[in-house]
């Protein structure tokens, strides 16, 4: 099975390599010797770092991944490490880990000496299908998630299914939740493809995984190229995210994996779209529910409430924090049909009550 | 006397307003009510904040200006204050202070929600002639100055000579040092203009000041528009800066005002250019020395050594930290003639010894 190459036509353009041995392609992207720094998730590095052949001796900072890595203090540690390694402006940061590592490393690279190159080696399904592609970087602030960041396109992304084998079950679900969202944004063909792949995904075969990742990356590459800085069409990729952030905010960040919250957020967005008369065919809700079950994902707040405290008041407070809209005017992505989405700002109080009640 | 409008043709373009009442133009730049945040130098605000009519009630953070403001921790405070004020992506940060305030506020604006607008109201001569124009933002890291930042063009810059009246003498000299550099980079006409203005500058008349600031902004606007992200021609604006950073590093940051160090750096760059056979007319050195004297600026390391410890070893160590070049290969801007500069990487050890000895 060969490595798929998907071009993201931003300016400059870059390639996402998907498939077994994708990590070997790192060396085909014009790295300058002695000008590389590796930022790695310590666990991912201990399990799979050897796959990054030839970079064992490069300066490296290993940190604990997850949302707790995305702080201003940790950003400072990375920037200090880059300086201490004497990296010039011609250098490249290589991230090796999940979305928190690419978010943090991408931000550090975009700031160091006002911007050096970054390449991402995503080691979680969530990062492979979503976080590592598109150039968004971020850290969290005291008052909210991802509130500080940049848009800094990587010079290359290398998604190897081999590194996903050791993924904990909640990370797996998180990736599938974002994949579900991406399939809906991608359109009918993407959704059908996910429906076909879904019964096989639990077996975690490299071929099935690579097909899933490639599908998602293709959709994301198309949308990001159209709108790199999220002025318009790219906002569709936030489908389910306004609700998801409210769920994560309410349950406490880290309690519910991001993509799992997104899966429920997608259901809420579909229900809202139906209630507002935007959804063309109500059958899509059932279709998505079925897919969520096959993928082992929750499809409603009720599914989460058994284990998490998600009171309507807390969810409403979370919605008010939405980064995308104006103060107390959260922005929602609504669905007409797969691949055809609409932006809505604010939502009737009574509808919100019934969705979150 | 009317306000001069100088357009910086970046993408998008913006205006720099120079002259008495320039601050009134803030309201002509499409500010959205309730979407403004002011980051102010506390001293400048107490003296001149009232000139920013109509923004008294906007959320505001006042901090102590100077290099100590440019830390990661202070950046975090600004970002937290923006969040606490509930600023949306349609908001604008207005900076009111010297270069450290525009550097810090510009960086915070470029990061908050991945980028909101910023406008600068520079209140020091250095910031008016240089720092507030061109979009460079930065904070200092443990190991060096301006090592983390972005390029984030402001939406407008408002340079009013009235706010310069209370400037301490060392801030005054600092601005004149950068103005001298800009005149040399600008070309023969700019240098002649500075020579004409220089005897009058010590009188600090608004007309003379506005003429000086407008000259410098015009030169900088032309060069920044040509090369916003400093890939090539913009590097000429670093004339004198590799030496200046070494001087500041060696004396301890803050001990010598930046622009004063730049004035001496310009002399060292001219001497290096002469020694390397690049300078077309050795008379330029004498011409610049004369100008430095009229402006009350030092023209050699000897002028600084009376009050500062500037051992050759310390200066060499400072040069090795240069952000622009590769490790231990500092980049120097050399001079053929006014307006015609060349980039050099590294320098003969014996030449450096004789320049710094």
Structural description of this entry:
The structure is a homodimer of 357-residue chains. Chain A has helices spanning 42-48, 72-84, 99-111, 125-131, 169-186, 188-201, 206-226, 241-251, 258-275, 283-294, 301-305, 312-320, 349-356, and strands at residues 4-8, 14-18, 36-41, 60-63, 92-97, 117-122, 139-141, 144-148, 156-159, 331-337, 340-345. The first copy, chain A, has 357 residues and is of the alpha/beta class. Chain A has 2 domains: 4-165, Rossmann fold (3-Layer(aba) Sandwich); 169-356, Up-down Bundle (Dehydroquinate synthase-like, alpha domain). Chain A has a 7-stranded mixed β-sheet with strand order 1-2-9-6-5-3-4. In chain A, a hairpin with a 2-residue loop joins β10 and β11. Chain A is globular and about 60 Å long. The N and C termini of chain A lie far apart (48 Å). The model of chain A has no long low-confidence stretch (mean pLDDT 94).
Bulk shape of chain A: globular
Order of helices and strands of chain A: EEEHEHEHEHEEEHHHHHHHHEEH
What is the CATH topology classification name of the largest domain in chain A?
A: Dehydroquinate synthase-like, alpha domain
Q: What is the beta-strand fraction of chain A?
A: 15-25%
Largest sheet of chain A: 7 strands, mixed
Helix content of chain A: 40-55%
Count of discrete structural domains of chain A: 2
């Amino acid at each position: 099975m060969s490595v798929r190459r998907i071009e993201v036509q931003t300016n400059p353009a870059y390639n996402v390599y998907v498939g077994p041995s994708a990590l070997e392609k790192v060396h085909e992207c014009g790295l300058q010797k002695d000008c590389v720094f590796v930022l790695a998730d310590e666990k991912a590095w201990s399990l799979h770092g050897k796959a990054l052949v030839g970079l064992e001796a490069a300066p490296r900072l290993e940190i604990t991944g997850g949302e707790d890595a995305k702080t201003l203090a940790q950003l400072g540690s990375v920037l200090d490490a880059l300086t201490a390694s004497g990296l010039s402006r011609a250098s490249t940061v290589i991230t090796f880990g999940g979305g928190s590592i690419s978010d943090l490393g991408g931000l550090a690279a975009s700031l160091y000496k006002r911007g050096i190159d970054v390449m991402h080696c995503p080691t979680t399904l969530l990062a492979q299908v979503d976080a590592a592609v598109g150039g968004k970087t971020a850290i969290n602030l005291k008052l909210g998630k991802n509130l500080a960041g940049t848009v800094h396109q990587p010079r290359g992304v290398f998604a190897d299914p081999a590194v996903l084998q050791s993924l904990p079950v909640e990370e797996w679900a998180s990736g599938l939740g974002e994949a579900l969202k991406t399939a809906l944004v991608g359109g009918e063909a993407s959704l059908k493809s996910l429906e076909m792949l879904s019964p096989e995904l639990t077996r975690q075969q490299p071929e099935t995984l690579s097909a899933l990742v490639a599908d998602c990356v293709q959709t994301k590459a198309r949308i990001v190229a159209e709108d790199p800085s999220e002025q318009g069409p790219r906002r569709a990729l936030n489908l389910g995210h306004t609700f998801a952030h409210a769920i994560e905010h309410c349950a406490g960040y880290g309690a519910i994996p991001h993509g799992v919250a997104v899966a429920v957020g997608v259901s809420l967005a579909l229900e809202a779209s139906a209630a507002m008369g935007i959804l063309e065919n109500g059958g899509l809700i059932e279709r998505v529910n079925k897919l969520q079950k096959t993928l082992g994902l929750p499809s409603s707040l009720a599914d989460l409430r058994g284990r998490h405290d998600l009171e309507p008041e807390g969810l409403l407070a979370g919605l008010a924090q939405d980064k995308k809209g104006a103060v107390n005017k959260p922005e929602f992505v609504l669905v007409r049909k797969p691949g055809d989405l609409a932006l809505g700002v604010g939502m009737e109080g009574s509808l919100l009550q019934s969705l979150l009640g």
